[in-house]
Design goal:
The chain is α+β, with helices and mostly antiparallel strands and 370 residues long. A 6-stranded antiparallel beta sheet has the order 2-1-4-5-6-7, covered by helices on one side. Helix 5 runs parallel beside helix 6. The longest helix has 18 residues. The C terminus is likely disordered.
Length: 370
Amino acid sequence: MIEIRELNKTFRLKTGDVEAVRDVSLTIGDGVIYGVIGSSGAGKSTLVRCLNLLEIPDSGTIILDGVGEIVLKNGKPYLNGKEMTSRQQNDMRRGIGMIFQHFNLLDRCTVFENVAYPLMHTGRSRKQIEERVRELLKLVALEDKIDGYPSQLSGGQKQRVAIARALAAEPRILLSDEATSALDPEATEAILSLLQEVNRKLGVTVVLITHEMAVIKSIADRVAVMEDGRVVEEGSVYEIFADPQEKITRKFVASSSLLGKLDRLLEEDAELVRVRPGEMLVRLMFQKDCVGEHLLTTAARRYGFDLNIILANSEYLHGSPIGGMAGIISGDREKIEMGLAFLRENHVSAEVISDGRADEADHAESLPVS
């Protein structure tokens, strides 16, 4: 388990202080794939580098199974009440593997030498190192590249070597900092599948840093959303996708769904999403049991409103269905309100994007009284 309490990290720059991580508290369970998502500058990469003390936090607490409670005071780490030595920090890092966006391989070393590098000076014999390297290259499906060099590999193959190297010392935790950002879609899918396999076969806890919600949706169990150095929302991936609370979270969720096109249509003021007096543009999200129900049809018939569907999307996420749609509703004002209330009572999230009925009300108020 990883527990983070009130973690803070500020960079002192000539241009001013930058609060990269602000009062972050998280709990990451054993053997899960935990996603951390945020835009550029949100603090997610700094947070993950704080976990293995590549960046020393200014204050806060980090608790790691097998290590203990690390308390940060005035930019220094303390373990069991004593300041951690460089050796203790290095010992801690051996239990935490890390993979990077740009692979960080040694160009002049073979694939074998790159994977074997973390095992040097660990007391293992040459035979033990060779056995471990071959085992890992088999896991990442690169046995035939053992004598090759990074320059001879594709981007996806380089990242596979980097993953094998990160696993060499049998870490309990694997940190992935934008590991798929430099890869094409096919290689990205392959690397994400490999991370799932590593998590499942080896029981390694994976902390996945990304700015792509599709990556989170693909393999993560839980996710934390960061903005301006803070965690603004956290929960299971299904919960976050089904009912995002924060504006930044809704933006990320929309980016990985067909419904994300709605925001673009609104920005372009497309004819498709313009509402006339008496109409409403709504976004509806259907969760779990209500996805397959006839709730929308029932509501429209019962309360007598019309619905023009603009966009719709449904899929399975972690074994449970989730769906959404955007459309324009027209009809009697009171009956529309009753219909939306009915949908909300049946666990359908209903968000009003724009309301032409407000214009209708304003117009009515401006009419002269006879």
